Amino acid sequence: MLDLVLPLECGGCGAPGTRWCPTCAQALAVHTDEPVVVTPRLDPGVPVFSLGRYAGSRRAAIIAMKEHGRTDLVAPLGAAVGDGVARLLAWGVVEAPLTLVPAPTRRSAARRRGGDPVTAVARAAAVPGTTVVAALRMRAFTRDSVGLSAGQRQRNIEGRVRVCADVSNEVLVLDDVVTTGATACESVRVLQTAGVRVAGVLAVAHA
Fold it and tell me: Signal peptide: which range, if any (predicted)?
């Protein structure tokens, strides 16, 4: 009866009767050579890693989580992030103790979404030897970056990210999607200016 009122469908492909189907789970799985290094148009000065392309079920899941209130997708996305972080630790790219710092979200967007989904994904990753600190905040009146060019994104966010919490460990910045790299650049810059050691950026997807 509940399925008739609120149809249950996969957050990745729309398959009925399940919130997250095995096919989409396999598409989100982190392979032995992942995460991969990507090169956004704006270079943050630290390595940028991605778990996969912003396409298919990965893209659909991110949009459903952020824009359609599918908080049930935090768990599978968080599990993928956890596997990616564990791989970076095993490779020696980052070292424990490690702090995951979510990229900042506009406060108006976070209120509309019932919270910050990137922070929720970071906390769901649950990797031993890591902690999550929401150390970055976006200042008011920052525009939505959708539709902006690389230069416009950079000007839009420049000077609008601030550090709001102390971080003592090495940091890995976590973002949902890296497009031009503007948010990553500003996040890394303000953390380093505050004396924080930033090892890199990890994105759930790259465009």
Answer: none
Task: Output the DSSP codes for the chain.
Answer: -HHHHS--B-TTT--BT-SS-HHHHHHHPPPTT-SEEE--SS--SS-EEESSBS-HHHHHHHHHHHHS--GGGHHHHHHHHHHHHHHHHHHTSS-SSEEEEEPP--HHHHHHHTS-HHHHHHHHH--TTEEE---EEEPTTPPP-TT--HHHHHHHHTT-EEE-S---SEEEEEEEEESSSHHHHHHHHHHHHTT--EEEEEEEEE-
- CATH 3.40.50 matches 31-206: yes
Per-residue b or e along 52-73, where b marks 16 or more CB atoms closer than 10 Å to that residue's CB: bebeebbbbbbbbbbeeebeeb
pLDDT profile of the chain (207 residues), mean per 10: 64 95 97 97 96 98 94 97 98 97 77 81 96 89 55 66 93 96 95 97 97
Helix axis angle for 56-67 and 74-91, nearest 10°, is 120
User: Would you state the structure tokens that stand for residue 138, as one six-digit string?
Assistant: 């976006």
Closest CA to 203 of 98, 53, 60: 53
Predicted pLDDT of residue 140 = 57
The Cα-based distances of 126 to 147, 152, 176 in angstroms read 33, 35, 17
* Domain range annotation of the chain: 31-206
